[in-house]
Amino acid sequence: MPSCSSNETGNDVIQKPDTPKESKKEILTEADPTIFLDDDGTYYLYGTGSNSDYGFYIYQSKDLNTWQGPVGNANGLCLTGATSFGTTGFWAPQVFKKGDTYYMFYTANEQIAVAKSNSPKGPFTQDNKSTITIPGKAIDPFVFFDTDGKAYLYHVRLQEGNRIFVAEMTDDLMCINEETATECIHATEQWENTAQVSWGVTEGPTVLKIDDTYYMFYSANDFRNIDYAVGVATSNSPYGPWMKSTRSVINRANIGYYGTGHGDIFKDVQDNWNYVFHTHNSFTEVSPRKTAIVGLKQQGTSFCVSDSTFHYLSK
To answer: How confident is the model at residue 93 (pLDDT cuts 50, 70, 90)?
Structure first.
């Protein structure tokens, strides 16, 4: 299968790999996953649950392989509509720590909101159940802190497709400066819209900076499409313009499963790059989607999948 040892990163073929070691355990069924590494070396996993109308469950691990939970302080949940915005569609959370406060940016009711907690296990709450003001419907938030201290909200606006935007945030992280809102990416490449639908989809952005280059990981195609995949774009500015990879970096060909996408890049305690994401439940069923991790390495101006690193998360 294509990997760092290969120049091929397309999605033309599907090869079914050996059954992962974790197959005899309970595989975690979280979509749109993100992993937060706390100061004490504990990894916390958040994501869109099989029933996304309740809020967000949370799991913890010391080794990225075996997970415990749910461990949220609200009956396993770390955020619910009881103390934060939202009544349905709790999707795609992102968690980070600033000072002594943990922030969760998330989607509910196809709007973006932010809640706070003094623990990664929650409960994440809001003094006022409100959203970040963005014109129209918006999903998939990701906050990026640049080296100059400025914070940017990458997100998806539902307008003539799922389009990735960025806007500078206010210092308190509660609002964006809409006058800075800039479109970054929409579906233009063949791999981004293999079904050739009128409503193109690019979503799930996560951004990092290495030296002077900004890297955006994002997913394309409808999540129900077997060709759902992850690409990388680069820029010299947080606003773009963004130069896309012409082929997807994580896809069904080099992973061996359908529906590979919508996750988050992070470094483990060994300082290695990893990408956490979801796949379809099987070769015939999309849901409930399953959570997986794969190692990544830089390859020129992009990244590639590290050999023999893919595994499902289980408990």
So the answer is: very high
Task: Quote the CA–CA distance of 90 and 58 in Å, as a whole number.
Answer: 13
Question: In one letter, which amino acid is 212?
Answer: D
The C-alpha atoms of residue 298 and residue 90 are separated, in whole angstroms, by 33
Give 35-38's long-range contacts (Cβ < 8 A, gap of 24+).
35/64, 35/264, 35/266, 35/274, 35/276, 35/293, 36/95, 36/96, 36/97, 36/120, 36/266, 37/266, 37/267, 37/268, 37/269, 38/97, 38/120
Q: How many CB atoms lie within 10 A of CB 134?
A: 20
Instruction: Please tell me the distance from the alpha carbon of residue 254 to that of residue 260, in angstroms, as a whole number.
Output: 10
Q: What residue ranges do the domains of the chain occupy? A: 21-312
Those residues with Cβ within 8 angstroms of residue 1's Cβ, 6 or more apart along the chain or in another chain: 15, 17, 253, 254, 255, 256
- Looking at residue 211, the DSSP 8-state letter turns out to be T
**Which residues sit opposite 277 in a β-bridge?**
292
Average pLDDT, the chain: 93
Strand partners, 103: 96, 116
Residue of 95, 114, 92 whose CA lies nearest to 35: 95
Please report where in the chains the tokens 């296990």 appear, as a residue. 121
Counting other chains too, the contacts that 165-173 makes at CB distance below 8 Å and 24 or more residues apart are: 166/238, 166/239, 166/240, 169/143, 173/98, 173/103, 173/114, 173/143
Residue in the structure block whose two tokens are 């130069």: 243
Q: Which of 294, 225, 310 is nearest to 259 (CA)?
A: 225
Where is 53: in which H helix or E strand? Answer: none
Q: What is the DSSP letter of 255?
A: H
Give residue-wise pLDDT tens across range 168-215.
999 999 999 999 999 999 999 999 999 999 999 999 999 999 999 999
Helix, strand, coil proportions of the chain in percent (round to 5)?
5, 45, 50
CATH code for the structural domain at 21-312: 2.115.10.20
Q: Write down the pTM of the prediction.
A: 0.94
Q: Is residue 263 within 8 Å of 33, Cβ to Cβ?
A: yes
In the DSSP assignment, the letter for residue 314 is B
Token pair for residue 80?
Answer: 């619910």
